[in-house]
Amino acid sequence: MDVPLPKIVEEGVHYLRARGDLREVEVFAAVNGMLTCRINYTSHLPCNGLEEPKSLHTQGVGVRAVFKTGDKLTIGFGQETGSLSLEAIASACAKAEEGAVYDPEFFGLPTPGIEKRTLWNYHDEKIMHLTDEALVSLGWKTIHAALEEYERSSLVNEFTPAELGLILGGDLTIIQERIAIASTHFPTAQEDSATTIFSFLTSMIEKTTSKGSGWSVDTHLDNFTGEAGRSAVKSALHSLDGQEIESGRYAVVLAPHAVADLMNNLIIPSLSLDTFYAGNSTFQGTLGSKVLSEELSISDHGSAKGLAASRGITCEGLPTGKTQLITRGVVTGLLSSDYESKRMLNHRSAIEKLGVDPHQWQTAIVPRNGFRLGPGGGRNHGSLPSISPTNVVIEGENAVSLPELLKRVNEGIYIGRIWYTYPINGLQAGDFTSTIVGDSYIIRNGKLAEPLKPNTVRINDNIHPLFNSLLGVENIQTGIVLWAADEVIYAPHLACRQLTLDHIAHGMNHL
Predict the structure, then answer these.
(1) Cα–Cα nearest to 497, from 428, 435, 413, 417
(2) Which ranges in the chain are annotated with CATH 3.30.2290.10?
(3) What number is the average pLDDT over the span 164-186?
(4) Which of 332, 321, 254, 266 is nearest to 298 (CA)?
(5) Cα(373)–Cα(69) distance, rounded to whole angstroms?
(6) pTM (two decimals)
(7) 206: exposed, middle or buried (C-beta count within 10 Å: 0-12, 13-18, 19+)?
(8) 105-135 as b/e, with b when 16 or more CB fall inside 10 Å?
(9) Coil, strand, or helix at residue 205?
(10) Domain 5-238: what homologous superfamily?
(11) Nearest partner of 318 among 269, 248, 380, 368, judged by Cα
């Protein structure tokens, strides 16, 4: 992964600008590595424990070019995979020319703004040069942490491993990424390197039909402890003999994973400028207005050193930074890319879509989130920039401890992990449904009591009454990476006054 990307993209721009028919041109190059270990451990069945340690490496170039076509300008995109050369760049430009179209909502490639880059040298060189042996050892470190927790349990003295039936499933993933970008407006290349290591495990004890989950995310190898395995087994052991509840409206404490799931599927998509443009946001036309509890603030912080999804620059060559999305319940900013910001600023119905004049609120739509993300992680040369969150940080105005949140709820439900969360009647309506799948408990007298039986309760409600009935926000945030999500959500526990829960008969056990 030592290819000189800045030199390649700079030479590519210089080479393509010699053409007489190009008004603007941009060359983007990326080299990515994705290393994965699949964990599949069973205490009572023959197994390898660690399956499919593998790596996937990609590299290539992408070219966006603006052509003079008669009295109009057309824009096209082309890419070449595998090669990082002038020949590949020329080929990508030829593809861009072949597919170029007139876009009346295109107002030019990104240009330097007033914001400056603040994050440099934040990746881990150890991860960049990780060996196959080291990858496998990290996977086993996670399994050993899980087994250490398991062996501390009194159940191990009562039953044999074959009788208990411990199952561990999940994966460990490492992302290595390097990019460089240059253009007509950025003749000196912008470059960036990032590393991420994250794991997610679920555990099940078959004899007791209990299950639990654990996760971890970081940017540096030295911080990795295998905690995901330990947490997954600990949660499963605490979930023995789960109880069922009747349908009704309950006061609840939402654990960080549940909060992150709701944010990822419902709140964050509605705080994206392209969603406002399409008229689909549940906060449509409310920029500058109060929409959630005053206790709640949400930001996207793409340049915070030490947070797992931080990046120095976007895939448009612009600085990342902090966008304050919600401030004490008020919509104060939106995730944006350069294309979407310019499109909204030039749209005749922008005031109707946003609720304010974007020219007076330009600081709310600064393009800090234009990324080219590929499947499974990493920045992909074959993709066009689109809006993506980075580190979503959720904070409380008067944050308190988890025991205090439980005390405020007093009698209710602690919701640990949910899945299959999706909007009903479209994103704009705010209605949603989700299933409680584990790590959950009944709250009695302000404390966690009996575990809730997995997959026996479904949530059916609306995000507006839910997030406007906050009883409190925890003073600690936990980094959560959800399945197939690109962002990392730093979520606290939230206590809410009411949530509609529906009993499901004959709960199923899903990992």
Answers:
(1) 413
(2) 5-238
(3) 94
(4) 332
(5) 30
(6) 0.95
(7) middle
(8) eeeebbeeeeeeeebeebbbeebbebeeeeb
(9) strand
(10) PmbA/TldD superfamily (3.30.2290.10)
(11) 368
